[in-house]
Every structure is written in structure tokens, then in C-alpha cells.
Amino acid sequence: MSTDGEPPGDISGPTVPRMILGNQLHRFREAAGISPDRAGYEIRASRSKISRMENGKVGFKERDVADLLDLYGITDDETRGGLMTLARQANAPGWWSKYGGDIMTDWFEEYLGLEAAASVIRAFELQFVHGLFQTEAYARAVTLLGNTGAPGDEIDRRVSLRLKRQDLLTGLRPPQVWAVLDEGALRRPFGGRSVMRGQLNRLIEVSELRHVTIQVVPFSRGGHAAAGGSFTVLRFGDDDVPDVVYIEQLTSALYLDKREDVDHYLEVMNHLSTEALTPAQTPQFLAEIIKET
Amino acid sequence: MTDEHAAKHDATTGTSIDTTVPHSARIWNYWLGGNDNYAVDRKAGDQYREIFPGITVVARTSRGFLTRAVRYLAGEAGMRQFLDIGTGLPTADNTHQVAQRVAPETKIVYVDSDPLVLAHARALLTSSPEGACEYLSADIRNPEGILDTAAGFLDFTRPVALMLMGIMGHFTDDEAYPIVHRLQAGLPSGSYFALYDGADTNEAFNQAQQGYNDSGAVPYHLRSPARFLPFFEGLELVEPGVVPVPHWRPDPDAEPAEIYSYCGVGRKP
Predict the structure, then answer these.
(1) What is the tens place of the pLDDT at every residue in B192-209?
(2) Partner A, chain B 85-124, Cβ-Cβ below 8 Å
(3) N- to C-terminal Cα separation, chain B
């Protein structure tokens, strides 16, 4: 699926290095008993810049990292070397950086970074088939729906971006993707019946991948726990990096990483996963919907 | 990952996740440093740890025993079929990962009665392409039922490694010994059995466990080391026998650890 000669395993991007480096800098600063203001002063920046750095929201200048480590009294060469390597990785552009700003918003770019860096992606989808599983025809149909009047070239680039994301599934170290789909997402025939049948067949195919799990919540098990709508919980390989909940809205997105918020969504996701058909039952259910579509 | 057989036994998916009392698999996940736990578990886990700080050592060393035991069973003992009852939430180095690193074609049946644990196992404990994992929703109080269902997936004319890791503490001796002996009775000659559980040799551990049991969570009882021996009755004990968890075939670079749990591996003659 890779289209530009990029090695398929090398798509993780700068997000996790940012989060890990930010987390470390936060711990060192706290251990040294230094305030964000004082740290900001040291690198000619504001306290909020320090907070953005520590939360992994921005790239890092190597000189700033070196100055902060001096201030925090971190002199061990090995530790410093490791963190400077992270700082370089944290500045490398992700594969998505070449898509134009007209179709790539900051909030979606952040999501792509998190998605590419995640070790486990748990998604609940109420309305649409998850972007990682969409066929080109289905992706085109929902893109047209959301961007009426956009020029054909823009639609093409949006569809190409969405399909490019799916390289994640065939990369060297793919994340485990665990998706729970409401039956409604399978019944709404975006692009017409034949597009939808193709999409449902694609779901059966991807569910056969080792690292992909698909479960459907049938209408007959209504009244399920996700009253609010679709959301995604991202988990990262390092236990010290907190889970992130992603909720897409019409013109922006919510990112939640406070433990109380994440707990709530994790609980809902767990309820959904236990209420849904099991992964083993799901393909047969999909096959039945294909017959009726 | 899937077969007809699974679909049949998957027919009843429970939805009874209680988030108001601490949950043994989630609290264990917390002590191991995982993120699959809720506030109620972390609160109970912290209270426990205040009384008995060693609990994180218990969590870590008992996972270490699981890894060494499975490596031995798949390696030296040549086991290619595992029946792991009381799976718990996924962590690093789950049974199938350790076994399939030694022999990728190994088959594992994970058994648990908890819907949350099973949902995670089905999604995240997936087999190597060469081997296979199966997931059974079953209660260990019905050992013959587990054996019958597992026989649809494992070949019981060939040896099976039975694993009961940290779950027999949920039963009194009167319940636990018969359950274990009935499970062992269904295994062919040459099969293996591995078990660890918490021991009652530390006062703070006893106290913390009592507090936990009084909280409304599913209780767990610590056993004296002598009371581990009946689990292995009629089996040939693998060296070094029934011993503290850190002493069972330690890795060469293992650091000495406090003793809070006992374990053993036996072979059915």
C-alpha cells in the first residue's frame, strides 16, 4: 500500500519521542524542585512553553534540552545522550507533513501522530466504518459527504491521505487495533449498496489480520453504554505514557489524558467490548448483513 | 484466532463488569504498572500497598515465575499444548507469547470466568500464525466442563501443561484440592502441572489481604507452605520442588527477592 517508496515500518513519527522526552523533563524538573517559570527563564521562554514541552505537544530545540538538563543537574552522559537522541526524533516530520494545510488541520495532524505511535488503538464507531478499515470507494463517498462543493483534486488528496494512514496496518510493527462497530455503521449504505458490500467484505478481510479485532454491537443488544458517540482510546508502548482519548467533533477534536476522564471512556469501551458479539461471531454477522445489503 | 467451536462457546457474553468494588484482575494490573484499572482498583491497591508494600514484589516475582515455568514447559519438557485457567488481563509476556517464542506451533487455551478478562484476551492475546489460542468462558468449579470443552481444541491423547497461576487462593482447601485433582485426572500421562499462590508467612501480607477480603471483593486466602503440597499429590515434582517463587529455577542474573509466594511444577506419571 506504500506509495512513495518510504519503508513501511518507518511511520511512527515524532509524537511518542515528544511524549517520552516531555515526561522525563517534567520528572527531572520536579525532582530538582524548579518552577516552570524559572525553567522557562533559563531557555528564554514562557512557563506555558515549558508546559507544552512537558506535555509532548511541541518539538524541542536541542540547545533548550541541553540547557534544561544543566539546570536540573543531569550530568550523566548516557542519560543526556539518550534524551538528545529523543529530541532529534521529536523534531523529525511525520509522513503526513507533506499534505497541504487546506486538508490537514492541527488537531487532525496531532491525531495522526498519536495513531501512528500507538501500540493499542481501541475504537468505538457509531456511524462510520473506522478510517483504518475503509475501502477507497467508501472513503470517497464519506469524504464527498463531508466536503460538498470541494474541487475534485482536494477530494482526491483527502482520500489519498485516509488510505495512506492504512499503511499502519501493514507496517513492520503494526499496533493492535481493536474496534467495536455499532450495527448502524454497517447498515448506512454510504456510496450505494455495491460500495457498502465492498466495504463489508473488506471488514471481514481485515478482521483476519492477527493484530486486528472487530466486534459488532447488533441492534438487538441495544441500550449500550456509549450514549455519547464515537471515540478512540490510544495506548502507547511505555506504561508511563498515559492513554489518550480522542473524540472528533465537526470542526475540532477533543484529546483527554487526565486519568479521571480516561477511566470513564475506558469503562464505556470495556462495557461495549463485553456486550458486543465476540470477534469469532462477528464475521458471520457481517456476512449476513452483506446478504441483506 | 477463530473457529466454529469458539463461536459455539462464545454464545453467552456476560456484561457484568462491576466498577464499584475492586476487581482482582484489574488491581493486579495496577500493581504490575498497567493502565487497565479504575479509580476503585487504584484506591484499594494503594490501601493494600500501604499495609504491605511487598505486594508489588509479589506481582512482579509471580509473573517472573510464570515466564520461567512456561519457558521450561515449552522447552525442556517439550509441551506444545497449554491449558491456562485464570488468565488475568494481558500484560508483558503472557503464556502464549513465552511458549510460542520457544515453539511457535504451541496451542494455548485461556480460561476465565470474567467477561472483562475474556474480552481482552480475545482481542489482545492472539496467537502466532503457526500456533493457536482459544478462549473459554468457564468456571473452574466445573473442572470436567472445562476439560470437555478444551478437548474440542487440544488433543488430550497427548500431554497438556495445566497452569493455575495465583487463582487457587480464591478457594478454601476443601474446595481447592478436589478441583485441582479432578483437572489433573483428565490429563494424559506425561502432562505437567504448574501452580503458584500467595503464602501466609508474612504478617503484613496477611493483614493487607484480610482488609481486601473485607472490602467486598472476591476473597483470596493465603496458604501455609505445607498446604501447597497436596496440590502435587501423585505427581513427580520437577526440581527444586515446591519452593518460594524466587527460588524456582531463577535466571542467572536474578536479584534476591523477599519470599511471599510458593510454587511448584509436577509431571503426571
Answers:
(1) 999 999 999 999 999 999
(2) 115-116, 118-120, 122-124
(3) 33
What is the pLDDT, as a whole number, of residue B230? 97
What's the CA gap between A179 and B222, in Å, rounded?
39
Q: What is the pLDDT of residues B82-135, one digit of tens each?
A: 999 999 999 889 999 999 999 999 999 999 999 999 999 999 999 999 999 999
Which residues, including other chains, have CB under 8 Å from residue A10's CB and lie 6 or more apart?
Answer: none
Confidence of residue B18 (pLDDT cuts 50, 70, 90): low
pTM: 0.84
Residue A17: how many CB atoms within 10 A of its CB? 23
Cis peptide before B230 (omega within 30 of 0): no
- Looking at the partner chain, which of A259, A267, A274 has a beta carbon nearest the beta carbon of B14? A274
Question: In angstroms, rounded to a whole number, what is the distance separating the alpha carbons of residues B74 and B101?
Answer: 9
Question: Which residue carries 477533543 as its cell?
Answer: A254
Beta strand residue intervals within chain A, DSSP E: 120-125, 176-182, 212-217, 231-235, 244-248, 253-256
Report in angstroms the alpha-carbon separations of B176 from A134, B66, B150, B172, B230.
50, 20, 20, 6, 10
- How far apart are the CA of A259 and the nearest CA of chain B, in angstroms? 9
- ipTM of predicted complex: 0.84
pLDDT in the model for residue B99: 97
Residues paired with residue A120 on neighbouring β-strands, in sequence order: A176, A235
Q: According to DSSP H, which parts of B15-94 are helical? A: 24-31, 39-51, 55-74
